[in-house]
Amino acid sequence: xxxxxxxxxxxxxxxxxxxxxxxxxxxxxxxxxxxxxxxxxxxxxxxxxxxxxxxxxxxxxxxxxxxxxxxxxxxxxxxxxxxxxxxxxxxxxxxxxxxxxxxxxxxxxxxxxxxxxxxxxxxxxxxxxxxxxxxxxxxxxxxxxxxxxxxxxxxxxxxxxxxxxxxxxxxxxxxxxxxxxxxxxxxxxxxxxxxxxxxxxxxxxxxxxxxxxxxxxxxxxxxxxxx
Length: 227
Known about the structure:
Blueprint: E1 2-6, H1 9-14, H2 16-30, E2 33-34, H3 38-41, E3 49-53, H4 56-65, E4 69-72, H5 73-78, E5 91-95, H6 105-117, E6 120-124, H7 145-150, H8 152-157, H9 168-178, E7 187-189, H10 192-201, E8 205-207, H11 208-212, H12 214-226
Parallel strand pairs: 1-2, 1-3, 3-4, 5-6, 5-7, 7-8
Helix pairs in contact: 2-12, 9-10
């Protein structure tokens, strides 16, 4: 069995240094190759390969276009006995589950396990795991046509009746209202859309992978603040 990692264009754009550090770790510690964007990259998967994905959209595209099994990078790393887990000294952090991760119980548990391994206390929200309705502004915009063509079950059938279109001004107001729900200094997420929504609303959102690679994350956060 050969793992191949899809680093997610959106995650790499939002957190380039963290993405680079993760890819370096996977290569050096596990010999896992990163094969780039899932849209053309899924064609590089061969029989017996297993895809590692960090993005829910990448996961859908791989699943609908290949016969290869897909595993969340969070699940993979939560079982890595040699990962150098940083210590956050008991920091309490809210965890914002993603609406698109409903039914992905292994992902839910893996993220919580990772936060606990980093000595963080998870503050569960009232709407958590499968009850979460949050995905940033993902459900407030039309689905991309190229995504629909590539993964129609996910981006068309799965979104039927689930979208409510709002203007950019309305979306920002919704994100700002949502930010009032959190009572910890930081909010952890594992979804690119969720992170964008938190930051847009003024919440101090942080991707779980940034918590795992804090030195790289400092550079990403500095870059984000400049823009």
